[in-house]
Amino acid sequence: MGVEVLDAIAARRPFRLGELRAEPEGDRGWVVRGPDNGEPREVPAEASAIRALVRFDARGRYRPLSGARGLPGGWFVRCRDAAELEWVLETVYPLALVHLRQHAEGSLRVVGLDAALARQSGRYAVAAELSPEGRRRATSVVCSACVRVPLWAGARPAEPGAIPCPEPCSVLISFCREAALWERERPAPATDDPAAPFADFEVEGNPLRNAYLRAQTVEARGRA
Ligand code: SF4
User: Fold this and answer.
1) Is the CB of 134 under 6 A from ligand 1?
2) Using one digit for the tens of pLDDT, what is the confidence trace for 116-129?
3) From the CA of 25, how far away is ligand 1's center (Å)?
4) What ligand 1 atom has the least distance to the C-alpha of 155?
5) Rounded mean pLDDT, 42-65
6) DSSP-based three-state secondary structure for 16
7) Contact between residue 115 and residue 128 where contact means Cβ atoms under 8 Å apart
8) Minimum CA distance residue for ligand 1 atom 4
9) Stretch 155-183: mean pLDDT, rounded?
């Protein structure tokens, strides 16, 4: 995983990273494009402009997870050289290239969900109560919404431009906390509200919450 992205940068070949596409331009430059969606507009290669661009998803929801699918589309950034290209990619997907390089070198440190939940404290300590089935279900639901690939869960990349994820993120930990509470008092799945905040799992219409609760219901029926 990732060698093709690093090789493509070195060889000045087009490549994908997550939902981004990059292609060489001229002798040294690059163009980074977001998902196809509407008439493309040029965004300057400035941190504030790029962060503003990816702060909200295509539906206008705040993106608390940098790898969340659904980047807004219809934009491109021109980069002077490979250094600026890497900076733009890292601005959209923090640590992606670092993790790709470490993975390619075999030095990426991987921490699993059990270890990550065991070290939670305070408000998040309850997350460690989540059952093994709940941990598996939570990982499947939350990580499916992300372009990073959870190596810590044994996943392997299935698409070009996949980014290795070495450790459960705070969004997944937060989801596990809610899922542990749902095991105490089980809510019914509700109708998805596409406008519900991505990581507000207490909101009934939250699509990730409902995907988890629906999967739980299906699995329970299968066991009955
Ligand atoms: S833990 Fe899952 S959701 Fe979080 S960054 Fe890694 S792959 Fe994405």
Assistant:
1) no
2) 999 999 999 999 99
3) 32
4) 7
5) 94
6) strand
7) no
8) 169
9) 93
